[in-house]
Amino acid sequence: MIEVINDKCDFCGVCVAVCPVDSIDLFEARIEIKQNCIDCMLCVWICPVETLAPIEKLQEVECETAMIV
Amino acid sequence: MRDSYDCIVVGGGPGGAWAAKHAAENGVSVLLLEKDREVGIPVRCAEAVSEKGLKTVVEPQPRWISNIIEGFVIVSPDGREVAIDTGKERGYMLDRKIFDYDLVQMATMNGVEVMTKAYVYDLIKPNGTVEGVRVQHMGEHHDIRARIVIGADGVESRVGRWAGLRTNIKMKDMESCLQMTLSNIKVDPKYIYFYLGRDVAPGGYLWIFPKNERVANVGLGISGEYARYKSAKEYLKEFIGRHFPNAAVLYTVVGGVPCATTLKKIVADGLMLVGDAAHQVNPISGGGITTAMIAGKIAGGVAAKAIAEDDVSENRLSQYARDWHKAEGKNHERTYKIKQAVYKLTDEDLNKTADTILSVPLEKRTLANIFRTALFRHPSLILDVVKVFMTK
């Protein structure tokens, strides 16, 4: 899963341009990652100002929870 | 605003403005939609353009030009400065805020209607043919119909995607860019500087483009191939810390530049793409102002003719793609090949090439001369780079 830190974002659209599955919506002052994201990380890597990041911690927590359940 | 026009242009940059202007000039009704509250802002550009290139599309106005560039300096990875005499060929530092604004204003003089803060969120495409746009404006949603939609909506080209065109780009061809306008620095305003090397800007270059002797646009682009290891922000922070530790940052801007060849398909039924949206950018320099305007002019003209002939099919509109290819597209294919070869050069290769060029006395360091010298010693590709920078 990719997290968006909208505060860092300059809304330049470079993430939208590299997304192979059209998973990023760019609004006036907000970007959103849609459900069809394949976690390829291209948007994370291309962003010049590190606006996007994988939610590693959250993922770990979810895994743990899943294992407990 | 009406509920239908002959032609709708999405995006009020130079490509969009020029497409709108030339469509209107050829007798069709045009609406230009800009998502921001004002055209020209934010400036997502390093603002340098060649005088020759600009003059092919518009007569330059003094109020657009903040500085005149008389030559350039390439800084090799080991820090040697190679000045190149460009002779009579000059460059301009544009004030894009004023430039973009004026281009749109010129379009309005041909009857183009303009809507700012107009956020296009979808296309009207009932049977596969594009027939208009869905737009949000001042809290209201509107469907506006058009025979032809021209997408000049920049690197992300949502318009192209909605129309079903494949607008994806390889990571290695996308330049991840960041620029800061620095003040309280000292630069020679006659020269623009390009820094090369893996430590400065891998798969791209860093630029210093002076607006005057105290202010310059300092930025860089790194290839997406390398961006995963270290972001553009980190590279630029390091460079500015080293070279301009006392600078104040007046402006920071982020962007992506598609340094590839033109998209395979830039037209569909009722749709054309122009500028960054179509990847109509010089693949080495990343320059796209003039090329977008050339494309805009062609697209606008073809749009008007197609509407007059009542045929807005992909087949009819493909005249734009063909004419663009002849005008610039095929040059970009050649330039792209050079780019691919240049990116294989190591820092050591670049340093050696700098040596060769430095052996030519400065007053004789014209492009032709350098080319001759280098061809005799070792035919290096950096010279091709120089040529490419000079032509557009």
Set down the secondary structure blueprint.
The complex is a heterodimer of chains A (69) and B (392).
Chain A: E1 2-4, H1 14-18, E2 24-27, E3 30-33, H2 42-46, E4 52-54, H3 56-68
Antiparallel strand pairs in A: 1-4, 2-3
Chain B: E1 4-10, H1 14-25, E2 30-33, E3 48-50, H2 51-57, E4 65-69, E5 71-75, E6 81-85, E7 91-94, H3 96-108, E8 113-115, E9 118-124, E10 132-137, E11 140-151, H4 158-162, E12 174-183, E13 191-195, E14 205-212, E15 215-223, H5 224-227, H6 232-243, E16 248-258, E17 267-268, E18 271-273, H7 289-308, H8 314-342, H9 347-358, H10 367-377, H11 382-391
Parallel strand pairs in B: 1-2, 1-11, 2-8, 5-13, 11-18
Antiparallel strand pairs in B: 3-7, 4-7, 5-6, 9-10, 10-11, 12-15, 12-16, 13-14, 14-15, 17-18
Helix pairs in contact in B: 1-3, 1-7, 2-7, 7-8, 8-11
What would your notes on this structure say?
The complex is a heterodimer of chains A (69) and B (392). Chain A has 69 residues and is α+β, with helices and mostly antiparallel strands. Chain A has a single domain (2-68), classed as 2-Layer Sandwich (Alpha-Beta Plaits), CATH 3.30.70. Helix content of chain A is 33%, strand content 20%. In chain A, β2 (24-27) and β3 form a beta hairpin. The longest helix of chain A has 13 residues, at 56-68. With 392 residues, chain B is of the alpha/beta class. Chain B has three domains: 4-44 and 97-169 and 260-336, FAD/NAD(P)-binding domain (3-Layer(bba) Sandwich); 170-258, D-Amino Acid Oxidase, subunit A, domain 2 (D-Amino Acid Oxidase, Chain A, domain 2, 2-Layer Sandwich); 341-391, no CATH class. Chain B is 34% helix and 28% strand. Chain B has eleven helices and 18 strands. Chain B has helices spanning 14-25, 51-57, 96-108, 158-162, 224-227, 232-243, 289-308, 314-342, 347-358, 367-377, 382-391, and strands spanning 4-10, 30-33, 48-50, 65-69, 71-75, 81-85, 91-94, 113-115, 118-124, 132-137, 140-151, 174-183, 191-195, 205-212, 215-223, 248-258, 267-268, 271-273. In chain B, strands 1, 2, 8, 9, 10, 11, 17 and 18 form an eight-stranded mixed beta sheet that branches. Chain B has a seven-stranded mixed beta sheet with strand order 6-5-13-14-15-12-16. A three-stranded antiparallel beta sheet of chain B has the order 3-7-4. The longest helix of chain B is centred in the last third of the chain and has 29 residues, at 314-342. Chain B starts with a strand and ends with a helix. The mean pLDDT of chain B is 92. Chain A binds chain B through residues 10, 12-14, 16-20, 22, 26-28, 41-42, 44-50, and chain B through 35, 42, 44, 119, 154-158, 161, 167-169, 171, 174, 176-178, 224, 227-228, 231-233, 252-256, 258.
